[in-house]
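Quick illustration, no need to memorize.
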Amino acid sequence: MKTVVFQGDSITDVGRSRDNDSMPGCGYPTVVRAVEGSRRPGEFRFLNRGISGNRIVDVYARIRRDILNLEPDYLSILIGVNDVWHDFENNGVDAVKFEKIYCMLIEELLEKRPQMKIIIMEPFVLHGSATNGCYDDFFRPEVELRAAAAKRVAEKYGLPFLPLQKMFDEVYPLQKEGYWLADGVHPTVEGHGLIAEKWIGLFESIC
């Protein structure tokens, strides 16, 4: 059985149990597990290690406990929005440092587990109750900087990159604000469904 680890912030966490891996939360990792686990029973073990509030520096700090010690065959990383959001508390991670730490993370992972396949997911944002106050002059441009950095990291190390911003931009006008991302940051059930569908398409092309 191969191990798949989901890593990230609250968008990945979504209420997962810290004590029971059979309770992986209410987000896209659970949808992925449901679909892949039913299509190919017994082939994969899915572990959610997202932690709400995490930035790239926090994921890097957990590299042994929540990635390497789990000996994953596949690793999926979605990180970046808190590196922007936490600037309101003067605790964000600027785009240059974000990319630098991301590279450090990937280099160490590939050094320790060179056969592991890593999926880098694009951070995203929409208009919503948490972002409307400074969407155009802060949230959107800053998240786009982290998204561009994540894509460069994927390209630098030859890793699969999963774009998500364009997908959300395209569906945003189809429903009322908050339908896909409840507050402009956190996906609804429907938003998680879109992410999972895209993720599964990429995963099945590399596994």
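DSSP finds eight helices and five strands in the chain.
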